Structure formats: C-alpha cells, structure tokens
Batch of 4 targets.
Target 1
Amino acid sequence: MFDKLTVRDVDVRGKRVLVRVDFNVPLAEGAVTDDTRVRAALPTLRYLIDRHARVIVVSHLGRPKGEPDPAFSLRPVRRVLARLLGRNVHFVEATVGPDVTEAVERMVDGEILMLENVRFNPGEKANDPEFAKELASLADIYVDDAFGAVHRAHASTVGVTHFLPAYAGMLLAREVETLTSMLAEPTRPFVAILGGSKVSDKFGVIDRLLDHVDTLVIGGGMCFTLLVAMGVEVGRSLVEDDWIEPAKQMIEKASARGVDLLLPVDFVVADAIAEDADTKIVGREEIPADLMGLDIGPTTVELYKDAIARARTIFWNGPMGVFELKPFETGTREVAVAVARNARAISVVGGGDSVAALKKFDAEERVTFVSTGGGASMKLLEGSKLPGLEALLDRS
C-alpha cells in the first residue's frame, strides 16, 4: 500500500498548487520527439484543473549548467502540453523572481502556468534553502508527480517540502505501488530481465531481485563481467575488472537461492560498433580475442523467449545489445516482442533504453506498465530511500 498522502487527500479548489513533473524529454531541432513523460503527467494535471486549482508546473530538462540555455528551454514542451490538454498553458521565462510572481498573481482558478527549466537556477541542484523558499512562496500546496526525479534531493523535489504541505501525484503513487507490489506479491514464475552496459549500475538491483525472482535473465554488456567471473574469455567485450569478484558472489547467491540464472550462450560479435560492421555469430566460449560481443545470439534469443513465455510476472530493464544499430538490434527486439506477447503475465518495464526499445519495435502498448523513471525505479527496487518520496506527508 502507498503510505503517503496524495493529491486526492487535499482540497485544491482555488489553491495555488506547485506541481513538480518530469518533463525531461528528448528534443531534436527544437521539437519534442517523445511525449511519453508529458502524457504520464496528464491525469494529475487534469484532476487539479477540473477542481479549479491554479496549477504551476515546474520541471527540469537536460543538464544545463545552472544558468539559462536556450537549448534546454521548456518552451517546446509547453506546446506539447497545451496540445495534449486541449487548452492554453501560460509560460514564464524564469523559475522565480518578479516576472514569475506577477504571472502567478494573474492566474485564475483552473488555469495552468509552466515555469522555465528549474535547472537554469544553480540553487536547484544545490538544494539551496533560499531558492526552495522562494519557489515555495508561489504556492499553497506542493504536489510531486515526478517519479523520475524523486531519487534527487534537489530544491524542487525536497527543499520546497520544508515550506509547503507536500503530497504525491497520481503518477508517483502508481509508480511506487506497481514496483513495490511486484516484489512483495508476484504471481509466479517471476522472471526479471536485466541488460545494459555495466553490471556496476545494476548490482544493488540484482542483489535484491535474487531474493524474489525465480529466473534472472542477463544480457547486454553487463553479462561479460559475469562470464569472466565464470572463467570465460570474452575477447574485447566490455568487462568491469573491479566487479569480477562481486559478480562471483552474485552467481553464488543465485545458486544458493535456487534462482535460475540465464546468461548468453552465443553472441553476435564484431570488431567495431558501427552500422557497417562485419558480424558473425559465435558460442560464448569462442569469442575471438580481437572481437567484442554486441548482441545476444540466436540460440540465446530462443532460450530467453522460452523463459519469458513461461513467466507470470516480468520485470525488464536494459537492452540485450547495441540495439540502436541494426546489426545488433535482434536480441533486444526479440525480448521486447516476447514480453509484449505474454498476455498472461503482469509485465513491468523499468524506464530508460527499455522504453525506447519498446517504442522502436512497436511493443509499448502491449505491456502492463511502463515506468517513467529509469534511475528512480532502480533505486526503489534495490531498496534505497528516495529523498523526494520520503519528504512527502505520511498517510498515518
């Protein structure tokens, strides 16, 4: 059960509500190329507008260096939000200051105002109390609906909660409920699929998942550190030498827990990460010294698809290879399609490259839940405290 108060627990009529959203979306030539995160915030924003709140939207975008940068302006996002809401969204080219205060004072019930990128102010990432206080002064209530940012202790996620009553938005509540209940009450068999480049990024998640899953499927560059821990030669494939010993412990824990740990048995290898690379398929014991594994091979694909087909709960985070390039996309595509085709399973996809893969292979609409927060979902699953979540009002 979600143990924080939500936006549904407070009377918002006529109130100024500061809503932290995660509109950190991809841009190309000044246009939003993926509006998933904007759409995810719509239920909370519509709820507030329909109840005649004065909605002040705040978000970050990209990694500006604490000062205004047109390349990271939220103006393109404002246009998308206005289109999706079917109403005007006012915009102010600042986060705090006289222009913002004046814009807020002009608002009437049911209106929505978007502030400029909060990271244009150095006080955001520093969680500066004075900046947080000034931001909080714009509103009567704070609502955090930015699951993708709750693992950051910034001014707009933690600092403002010292000055305003703080509630969870609908997306944030659903994200936390979905991910925590997946571990607490999974329908079995529970299969977790992890990929990506580095085992160091996922070690905490793997360690915790081993206490809950029946099968753990590993792909991507991270698998090579585990293979080296098993004594396999992997050529020029990515290996984190400092994580070989922890990888051995991971393998031992899987065995002790009775978890079926699936590692690739063959690979697509090449001498370069390139569209025109010469590729070949080799067994995992046969990777040439001058080549590197860049995707799982066909035998591994069938092994993984079989495990996915038998699952009744699926968690997937991370690609099986360099799926952005056609020579190395097959493994990730086949995993994405297998997850989507298993209609009997509860399937949860944990943000980042996995979501991009779902979109690329037209599988997004057929999974149960897609998380908007890659880093935050990983932190939550490994059992870490999320500062932005901890700062919200408790239900009891």
Target 2
Amino acid sequence: MDVPVFNINGESVGSMTIDEQSLGGTVCPVLIKQAYVRYHANLRQGSARTLTRAMVKGSTRKIYRQKGTGRARHGNKKPPQFRGGGHSFAKTRTREDFRLDMPRKMRRKANRNALLAKLVDNEVKIVDGLTFDTPKTKAFIDMLGKLGVDKSALVALSPDAEKSRNAMLSGRNIDGVALCRADQLTCFEMLNNRYLVIDKGDLEAWLSGPSSQTDKQAKINPMGRAAEGGA
C-alpha cells in the first residue's frame, strides 16, 4: 500500500510504502473492539463513593417515641428510606474492579489493525518533518487545513520532547485536536478521532518498533520498554 507523504504546507512530497500484511492484512473489528473496550475500562478511576447509614453524620436521637403514634418504629434519621440517609448498597468499588487485561500480542495486533483501518479509509496524513520553529497555534491550524483535516484529529508527536515541544505548545489548545506520543499510539486514541497526523520518521519507528513484535519474540526477545513489561 502506497500512502502519500506531505510537508507541513500540504504539498505532496512523495509516498510511503506500508505492508498491509504486517498490519493484519484485513481489518478485524472484533479484535479492535476488544482492545478498545480494554483501554477504555482501564481509564476508569473507580473513585465513586456513597455513604452507608453508619457513615452519615448527624444526630442519633430517636425521631419520635416508640409507641402510641400509630406509625412504624424508628430510631434516628439515617436509614435509607429517609431523605439524607445512607445507601443500602453503598458504592465502594476501586479502580482495580474495572480493570481488564489482554495479552500483549493481541493488543499490538489490535493497534496495528486499527492503523490499517485508518489507512483503508484514507484517514492517515503522513507529514515529512512535523516540526515548528516557534510555538504558534495559527501555524498549526493552517497545517491541518492544508492537509485536508476537516474533522477531529489525533496528532502523534515525536517522543523527543525537545523536538516536539513547539508542536505540542501549538496544538494543545485547539478544539477537536488530541495530542499523543508517537511511540504510545494505540487503537483507543486512533478510533476516538477521525484523522491521524504523524511524522513519517515516527511512523516508521512505530511500525518497526516494539509494536511489530506480535509473535513469541515479544516475550523471548522483547524490544524497547517491552523488556520492562510495557505494552
């Protein structure tokens, strides 16, 4: 598959050949969805909390006398049936309760397959030299317009902080634009945005980096952060 390469002025400066088979050959929606749900679930903080009747602060005084009123017997005003009372089944779940796991090889295949889906739909804009001399939001917006980006876009920047600093400062406050590091590109970020904008060198590094190990070599002879347990 030949994908056009542009400069930051939107001019075509060549093409990049990408092997479809290395990305899975065909799009597998089931695999991509499984990985997407996993990434989404693992973002949950699990911080929702509600109070039981024992946690509610207030008086423990009996609200009315036990007998002679014709009403039900009650103690204080903290039971669930009273306004301001505690919950019968309070929420106490933690972040770990929502976490999902998925084999590393499957995650990488899903990420590469999501890129294939973007390539098939012509939603990947490869830029030769995605850098800016100075941080300037207008220049960043002009670049997206010249590339034909008319919907939400994920801009994958270089892992080198010094190299990507101006681009990050230029695009971080633009509505509909999300930024991420190119070496941390996942199907979750790609599918949350219509277009993917990435530097040619960063895409080549991602395709040949740890994400390319989708077989036993991922465990036997891992590359990069995978040696320390990274995805």
Target 3
Amino acid sequence: MNARVQLVCSMTRMNDYRKSIGSADDEARITLGLLDAVGTNSSVTQRLVAGELGIALGLANAYLKRCVRKGLIKVQHVPANRYAYYLTRKGFAEKSRLTAEYLSVSFNFFRGAREQCTALLDQCQANGWRRVALIGATDLTEIAALCAQDHTVEIVGIVDDQINRDSFAGLLVARRLKDLGAVSAVMICDMRTPQAAFDTLIAALPREQVLTPPLLCVSRTPPRLVK
C-alpha cells in the first residue's frame, strides 16, 4: 500500500468515525468545533459544547482553557455567575485556517471516493453485474449511490444492521443481504469495520464479487502466517 493511499485511509476514518481523542486530527476537530461554537454564540456553555461535539464535559473544559492560554478565546465574567466567551483576532484567524484545512480534507475524500466508486461500478457494468448491494450506510454509501446514476447498474439496497432506519440515501435498508433478493455483487461502504465485513461476505460470495474501494484499506488476501 503506497503512502498516498495510507494517508487517504487515515483521513477518511478520522472524518467519519472518531479516532482516539489524543490524535492530532481529533484535536483539530475539537478545536474547530469549539471556536465555531464561541464565534456563533458568546453565551454558549461548556456543557452545550461538549454535547454538540460528543465529548466529555471535562475534555471540553480542558480545550477551552487551552484556547484561552493560546490567546484564541477571551473570557469575560457576566452577571449571575456566568461567563461569556469571545474569539480574539488570533482566534478568528485560527478558525479560518482550520476550516480551510477541514474543507480540503473533505473535498479530497469526496473526489477520491467518487473516482474509486466509479471505477468499481465500471467493473460491474463490464462484467454484466446489474444488481449491486451496498454494505454499510455511511458517507461513502451516498457517494456510491450518486455515482450509480451514471451507470446501468441498479443499486438494490443497503445492508446495515446498525441503524434503525428503513431507507438511506433514497435506498432501502435491509438487515441481511438475503433480504434484498438475488444480487450480482456487493460493494463495501462500511467505514466502521470494513475488514470484518469483507471477511464475512467472502464466505458467502465469490471474492471477486465483493468490491472494496481502496480508501478502506481492506486486505483482500489472507494474512501470511509466520511460524
């Protein structure tokens, strides 16, 4: 696997499924969310920020103190024992920088995912695989469904037993693959456990009919055992 694919893989998983809190990427995500919340509402509370970002209250407090120390946020005491938070000039500049960085990563992910999904759908079309199921309901699923509109391939539905919805991206959601009827191939869009999904599916389908976008970094060959 080359360095470019490895980089895309790590960025993808950061964007759609949070990695460990200590990573630099997650630090940037939390900092950007905090700066955006303060920039939007100076009376925002730490508890509200924690809820919106999906982090512990103590972690929100730690990041807020860090931003204050860096000169990104200014704190002012207001009546009723409350605090108001304001972005400094430096804070606005950092928010702008992080936003541009995030958008760049998001655009690169979309562009790479679109190219890879298109290539896999071209493969389906060339092989005469007309009925294709998508495995997992994620951002990658939406991109694959969008790409399918330019092909003669029918996306018959999505298999995902982790969401409580009947449809996603305008497609039927089923809990089991057999619930979608006969399929010619499946494309893994699961960004939570793509390797496990692949390993399970190749037990029921020919390996070549289980398609995997390279950005998921799925190993399609069994690991070599070392004695």
Target 4
Amino acid sequence: MLRPLFLLLATLSFANAYAGEAKIKSSLDRDHPEIGKVQQVNKAPIPGLYEVVTQEQIFYTDEKAQYLINGNIFEMKSGRNITDERTRKLFAIDFKALPFDLAIKRVKGNGQRQMAYFSDPNCGFCKKLENELKNVDNVTLYLFLYPVFEGSDVKVHNIACNKNPAKAWEDMMLNNVQPPAAKCEASADKVLALGKKFNVNGTPTLIFADGTLVPGYLPGAELEKALNKPASH
C-alpha cells in the first residue's frame, strides 16, 4: 500500500505547487501590470523563492507575491550565474529567422560557423570586439549597425551607403579611418526596431547560431567557445 500512497502524495504535492505558481502569476498580472505580462512562474533554486518570467526579463518573488527581486542568483560553490543561464535559455532567438538582408555580411574562411551582432561605431567595447574577431576564422558574421551613441547615426548611414560597407566598417573600427559622406536610401529604423524587439539596450550584443543572446563584449576564447556550439534547429 506504500506505493499508491506515495504516488498520491506526490500528485498532491505537484498539484499544490502548480496552484501556487498559478496564484502568483494571477496576482502579479492583476496587481502589478507595470512589470509586464507574466509568461511563466517557476520554483527558483532557493526555497520559498519563485522565478517570474515576463516578456523582457526574469524577476523573483515570494510565495505571496509581496516582494519583487530584480537581480542575479549565483551558485556560490560553482560560481554559476543561474539567472544568466536561465535568461539565455528562456529568451533564445531563432537565428535562422533573423532578417539578414538588413545586415552587413562578412565571410571568413569556410564561413561554417555563424554569429550576428549589433554594434555601434562609437562604442569602445565594439572596437575591442572587432580586434578579437580579427583572429576568429571560419565564420560568417552578420553585422547589424545599431546607432545608440551620439553622432553614430551619421557614421552608420555613411557605412551603409558605402560601395563596400564591410570594408568601410573594418577600416573605421580597426584603423580609425572615417567613412566618406555618402547618400542613399539606407535607414537604421528597421534595425533599431529589430533591436527593440530583442531588448537590445547596449552594444555590442551578440547572437550565436544556437539562439543564445549575449549582451556585451566577449574575449576571443569565449567567442570561440560560443561559436562552436551546435546551431539551433
């Protein structure tokens, strides 16, 4: 008789947990619409804490939804950033669905690996990224010009209208050669809308073939590691 009793208790425990998560979601949607529509509520790795997933980010709350925590959970023993890992998994992007026609394409070596990224010509860390990418081979890069700094819109326009945008970009970012003034119908509006859709709030922002979005600069070794992950299907 122990086995049926165990199964009954396990079922009740699961049902209670689900009811608790559903209650938290309902409470937050009703009382705190300012945080955005709640997509999921899940148990966090810390007892009594719940993970709240909105359209834009992850929060944490207690079982009564009285407190909201905006921050990262780290596992002390391993040093893992649990929140960052969950964010990358939950907000993974369908890489193949990106509008590559809006990007500047560069192919290095056999081009088998792929990475898309948002970058600004006046961004210091974007220049550091380009210096790292000099040493990365066998990759196809899709650059989305994303002017967020003052004066960047003019540079972005001149690069986009250049006869060879990829070379104009590399000349500026690696050798500080400013692109000559140019006129064309190029507009950054579509790329800005794309960045807003993916909550790109700064540059550089990287998107790898497995759908992982990484906000910020990565050194060469980390780039290689991320590029070698299998592409999403």
